[in-house]
């Protein structure tokens, strides 16, 4: 393997100060920055040093991107492949890593904060409420590329968990129709557009209004839906972990 790995780095949801320290350090040290300019805040790319070669990928195919990455890596450059959000979610990194491995070039992946986390934080909400919901599902509508049949939206919605849907705004009518077969119509849905960017827009609406509000805002991309009963959790909901009656390794309980 090449001694200098290619770094696949998560840029987080948008705000530069939501970069991890490791991600920021790598961008600041990059000799070649290959970044998704259609989705990443330019202020993050601007952290790269003077003289860094910056390659924007919005108009490139994966093959063209990898041609650049492989060429610069073989030349011994410090290459940072910067992805929006967390690269392990809908980042196509498996294909990139395979091509790098075939070329004998090592890879290091740096996680990034995901939009669902930034959305919950902006709403000051917890998505796992004791006795109400304890599961978070990350998925998307089928769309042109489809999803495996076992992961069809009807199966995921049947859980009535905290369901976070990426890449689904173009199909919001179909999504709402399917969700209403499983969730009550008044289930809260957080609609997050460009979360943590300066023009961020987040609104919580009943599930029955999800499609209408999305269409009124003309949302077709960079939109996340968080469908969850946790967004309307009762005030008395409480975790047992911090209850005085609950003992564990570090604290005795009160009977």
Task: Give a verbal description of the structure.
- This protein is α/β, with parallel strands linked by helices.
- The protein has 2 domains: 2-110, Tetrapyrrole methylase, N-terminal domain (Cobalt-precorrin-4 Transmethylase, domain 1, 3-Layer(aba) Sandwich), CATH 3.40.1010.10; 115-232, Tetrapyrrole methylase, C-terminal domain (Methyltransferase, Cobalt-precorrin-4 Transmethylase, Domain 2, 2-Layer Sandwich).
- Helices cover 25% and strands 22% of the residues.
- The chain has 8 helices and 10 strands.
- It has helices at residues 21-29, 42-45, 62-74, 93-102, 115-122, 153-157, 172-179, 210-216; strands spanning 2-10, 32-35, 53-56, 79-83, 105-110, 136-140, 162-166, 188-193, 201-206, 223-227.
- The strands form 2 sheets. The chain has a 5-stranded parallel β-sheet, with helices on both faces.
- The chain is globular, with a radius of gyration of 21 Å.
- It starts with a strand and ends in a 28-residue tail after the last strand.
- The model has no long low-confidence stretch (mean pLDDT 92).
What's the CATH class label of the largest domain?
Alpha Beta
CATH level-4 homologous superfamily of the largest domain: Tetrapyrrole methylase, C-terminal domain
**Structural class of the helices, strands and pairings?**
alpha/beta
Tell me which CATH architecture of the largest domain applies here: 2-Layer Sandwich
Strand content: 15-25%
The backbone outline, from C-alpha atoms, is globular
């Amino acid at each position: 393997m090449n001694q200098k790995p290619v770094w696949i780095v998560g840029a987080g949801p948008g705000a530069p100060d939501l970069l991890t320290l490791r991600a920021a350090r790598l961008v600041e040290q990059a000799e070649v920055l290959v970044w998704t300019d259609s989705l990443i805040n330019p202020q993050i790319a601007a952290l790269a040093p003077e003289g860094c070669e910056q390659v924007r990928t919005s108009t490139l195919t994966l093959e063209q991107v990898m041609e650049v990455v492989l060429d610069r890596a073989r030349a011994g450059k410090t290459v940072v492949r910067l992805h929006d959000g967390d690269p392990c979610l809908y980042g196509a990194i498996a294909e990139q890593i395979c091509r790098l491995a075939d070329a004998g070039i090592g890879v290091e992946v740096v996680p990034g904060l995901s939009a669902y986390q930034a959305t919950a934080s902006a709403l000051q909400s917890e998505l796992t409420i004791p006795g109400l919901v304890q599961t978070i599902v990350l998925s998307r509508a089928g769309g042109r590329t489809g999803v495996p049949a076992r992961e069809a939206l009807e199966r995921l919605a049947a859980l009535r968990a905290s369901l976070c849907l990426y890449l689904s705004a173009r199909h919001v009518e179909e999504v709402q129709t399917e969700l209403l077969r499983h969730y009550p119509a008044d289930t809260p849905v957080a609609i997050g557009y460009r979360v943590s960017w300066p023009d961020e827009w987040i609104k919580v609406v009943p599930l029955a209004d999800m499609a209408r509000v999305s269409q009124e805002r003309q949302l077709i991309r960079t939109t996340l839906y968080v469908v969850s009963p946790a967004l309307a959790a009762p005030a008395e909901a409480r975790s047992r972990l911090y209850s005085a009656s609950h003992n564990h390794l570090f604290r005795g309980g009160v009977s």
